[in-house]
Amino acid sequence: MRALLVIATAGLLTSPAIAGRQDREFKPPKEKKVCRSERPTGSYIAKRTCHTAAEWKAIDSANAGNARAMLDKVGQPTGDGKSL
Questions:
Q1: With a threshold of 0.70, does the pTM exceed it?
Q2: Does 17 map to a domain?
């Protein structure tokens, strides 16, 4: 009798209905937010901004690219033959 109870219980635990319910309850872990204090140009008041590490990496990369583009423009000749 005890063996029959163990087999029946094992069958219930592996049934697709229970397995499906467990899959729905599983949620992937949220990415941790990283916060930075930034002062917008022309302001003394810092603003706290939070993004994931991947988002900060993309923002930093875009900012570095923009800074590089501005530095590359300095010293380029203008249309009148004079440089900036």
A1: no
A2: no
Residues β-bridged to residue 58: none
Range of the domain at 40: 30-75
Residues 52-69 as b/e (b if ≥16 CB within 10 A, e otherwise) read: eeeebeeeeeeeeeeeee
Contact status, residue 49 vs residue 60, Cβ threshold 8 Å: no
Cα(70)–Cα(84) distance, rounded to whole angstroms? 12
Question: Is residue 24 situated within a structural domain?
Answer: no
Cα 61 from Cα 14, distance rounded (Å): 48
More confident residue, 15 or 28: 28
Angle at alpha carbon of residue 31, lines to 30 and 36, rounded to 5° = 135
Residue 71 within a domain: yes
